[in-house]
Amino acid sequence: MRPPLILAALALSLGLGTLAHADQKLPPDQQAKVEAMLRQEGFTKWDEIELDDGMIEVDDAIDASGKKFDLKLDPQSLAIVKRKAE
């Protein structure tokens, strides 16, 4: 195998390995804590809650006024570190 092919194969295998670790489900106890925090912060509904790139991501969280947000939470403190309006 020539060096450029080896490098291409290595890059491809590293890229596929990274995809396998994205968007992981939370353990049930942590999921319950996140849901309790969301309710406490005034959110009434949400879609998915996942761990991605070391952050907890909440998709389509709807607040009491009906506004929709994507949220990123610190996995240790569960504080909202990013709020993006949809």
Percent range for helical residues?
25-40%
Q: How large, in whole angstroms, is the Cα Rg?
A: 18 Å
Mean of residue pLDDT values: 84
Q: Give a quick account of the main beta sheet: strands, pairing sense, barrel closure.
A: 6 strands, antiparallel
Low-confidence stretches: 16-20
Cα distance spanning the termini? 48 Å
Beta-strand fraction estimate: 25-35%
Q: Work out the oligomeric state of the chains in this entry.
A: single chain
Secondary-structure class: alpha+beta
Number of strands: 6
How do the SSEs run, as a string of H and E? HEHEEEEE
How many helical elements? 2
Question: What is the fold's blueprint, element by element?
Answer:
Elements: H1 3-20, E1 24-25, H2 28-40, E2 43-45, E3 49-52, E4 55-63, E5 68-73, E6 80-85
Antiparallel strand pairs: 1-3, 2-4, 3-4, 4-5, 5-6
Question: Can you offer a commentary on this structure?
Answer:
The protein is an alpha+beta fold. The protein has helices at residues 3-20, 28-40, and strands at 24-25, 43-45, 49-52, 55-63, 68-73, 80-85. Strand 4 and strand 5 form a beta hairpin. The longest helix is centred in the N-terminal third of the chain and has 18 residues, at 3-20. The chain is globular and about 30 Å long. Strands 1, 2, 3, 4, 5 and 6 form a 6-stranded antiparallel β-sheet that branches. The protein has 2 helices and 6 strands.
